[in-house]
Amino acid sequence: MRKFRTESRIKKISETIRNRQFSLRVVIENVHDPHNVSAVFRTCDAVGVPKVSLIYTVEEFPKISKVTSASANKWIETEKFNSIQEGIDSLHKEGFKVYASYLDKNAINLYDLDLTGKVALVFGNEHRGISEEMKEQADGLFYIPMYGMIQSLNISVAAAVTLYEAQRQRKVKGMYDKSELTEEEINKLIDDWCEK
Fold first, then answer.
1. Is 103 exposed, middle or buried (0-12, 13-18, 19+ CB in 10 A)?
2. CATH number of 124's domain
3. Percent of residues, the chain, with pLDDT higher than 70
């Protein structure tokens, strides 16, 4: 399909792929509202997170439309898990450290957390937060410091704050300057994306 291979499109796709942070993953656990899921997808695309892991053990995964996601779901790969253990095991097998967002006395301040390694960040349900099992299975917990009367953020806002801190740390370390992929892998992805 040659019509999808304009020079400007290939250039944009190439730049986007080269900036993807394959060592950074987002995990969504039982998030119910499709607008929240879509907002997380848009932030992932903006920051360069290539893949979102979806763990749905209680809720049904919401239907995401192109309108609500601004087509970000087209550029974000997803994988679905039916159990927390399955999801955590898969992430660990890939070499990820799993950190879940949760306000707890043992949680690490987001701004003290090193987000330049191979890190998966978990965000839970709008009302319940992360599950007890996720608290136990995660390698660590982190919290976003807040100085107001209310000590909670919408899940999409919490994800955005966290991911932009990850972006900041990775920019400082030069991780957006050199792709994590080989040229062969980049070219294959360019071909795949040109067909989307």
1. middle
2. 3.40.1280.10
3. 93
